[in-house]
Amino acid sequence: PPDVEELGRSTWTLLHSIAAQYPTTPSPTQQDHARTFISSFSQLYPCWSCASEFRAWLSKDGNAPRVSSRSDFGRWLCEAHNEVNTKLGKKTFDCERWEERWRVGWKD
Ligand code: FAD
């Protein structure tokens, strides 16, 4: 099985990069693609315990993917990532800054 930490870093890079390039005003079809992607991802992610806990989180009230705009999707992913950060005892990330980190690039 893959290294869970390396897999995680690569995966968050992919997920946040997808959100960073997601349309600002996605069509209904694009919104379906985002929802379907997250759902399939949660079934296929090759760290099974991670995937299972992510599915449990996704199924809770209020945690369904928010895909109505780039900023909604980016915020939602940031919150999902923070949930994992907290579980692992890592610092949470300031979601006001996700776009700066993943789309625009840090200022300094
Ligand atoms: P990572 O958490 O991989 O983050 C990479 C970079 O993203 C950071 O350096 C930072 O710049 C940025 N970042 C951090 N937080 C945020 C945020 N909230 N929003 C936007 N950007 C941010 N590992 C386990 O051991 N157990 C698990 O149950 C587990 N579940 C996971 C579930 C999912 C869906 C994914 C994708 C990964 C999971 N992982 C799990 C892996 C874990 O989240 C980390 O990827 C891994 O521990 C490496 O952490 P890291 O400190 O290098 O930074």
Q: Explain this structure to me?
A:
The protein has a domain at about 30-105: Up-down Bundle (Four Helix Bundle (Hemerythrin (Met), subunit A)). Helix 1 crosses helix 5 and helix 2 crosses helix 3. It has helices spanning about 5-20, 30-45, 50-60, 70-85, 100-105. The chain has about 110 residues and is mostly helical. The protein is built from 5 helices and no strands. The termini are far apart. About 10% of the residues are buried. It is globular. The protein binds flavin-adenine dinucleotide (FAD). Flavin-adenine dinucleotide (FAD) binds near residues 4, 12, 50, 81 and 88. The site of flavin-adenine dinucleotide (FAD) has 22 residues, from helix 1, helix 3, helix 4 and helix 5.
